[in-house]
Design a protein that fits this description.
This is TVP38/TMEM64 family protein. Keywords: Cell membrane, Membrane, Transmembrane, Transmembrane helix. The protein is an all-alpha fold. The chain has one domain. About 80% of the residues lie in helices and about 0% in strands. The protein is built from 10 helices and no strands. α3 packs parallel to α5 and α7 packs antiparallel against α10. The N and C termini lie far apart (about 60 Å).
């Protein structure tokens, strides 16, 4: 009974947090956070990274804000760590629901085929380097049964260029104006090309084996 009450309270507080997040413009929220200091700031930032997948907030804005708040030497490792943290909840949830029959079973089978073809770490790296949404990749890897260590390693390597680019963007800004935040399309193109290069050979070999 006590456990059910705690879960109910936790769910209520989480719902209140989500409503508050959606009701406050993202720009204003980050500006308010920029006034926090020391451990409080890191605690709030960590909490926001954890709940970000459930409130549909863009991951790129977090890395940009970290770059705006910290220098490159601190900003890049903080942003990369935060990226790994925020990608874990969708991955764990997908792992919990993977297998079985029906829609989840179909997703698991398709995901397993993809990562079996490309290889675990290589497949995660390629997916992370591509411009695909971060949460979609996390769910796909979870449904595919990718081991957590492989997922973390692939995410760390594949997300490093993106985290670095966004942190550099944030560090170069002293006036946080969301309308001015744009990532060079050439960076997106390079990421897509590298991702394709990583999966082209195993994908071609898989295709030949079926013909």
């Amino acid at each position: 009974m006590i456990r059910d009450t705690r879960l109910l309270i936790a769910g209520f507080l989480f719902a209140v947090f989500c409503i508050a997040w959606w009701s406050i413009p993202t720009q204003k929220l980050f500006l308010l956070l920029s006034n926090a200091r020391g451990g409080l700031f890191l605690l709030v930032l960590f909490t926001l990274y954890v709940v970000r997948p459930f409130i549909a907030a863009p991951l790129s804005l977090f890395s940009i804000f970290v770059g705006y708040r910290f220098d490159l030497y601190l900003g890049i490792p903080i942003a990369l760590f935060g990226t790994i943290v925020t990608c874990l909840p969708p991955f764990v949830i997908a792992q919990y629901f993977r297998g079985g029959s029906g829609f989840f079973g179909w997703l698991s089978k398709k995901g397993e085929d993809v990562f079996e073809t490309t290889g675990g770490v290589r497949g995660v790296i390629a997916a992370r380097l591509s411009p695909a949404p971060a949460d979609a990749i996390s769910y796909s890897a979870g449904f595919s049964g990718v081991p957590m260590s492989t997922f973390i390693a692939g995410t760390s390597i594949g997300e490093l260029p993106w985290a670095t680019a966004y942190v550099v963007t944030g560090a170069s800004m002293r006036n946080l104006t969301m309308g001015q935040i744009q990532l060079d399309w050439r960076i997106l193109a390079v990421g897509a090309i590298i991702a394709f290069a990583l999966v082209a050979k195993p994908g071609y070999e898989k295709l030949r084996s079926k013909t």
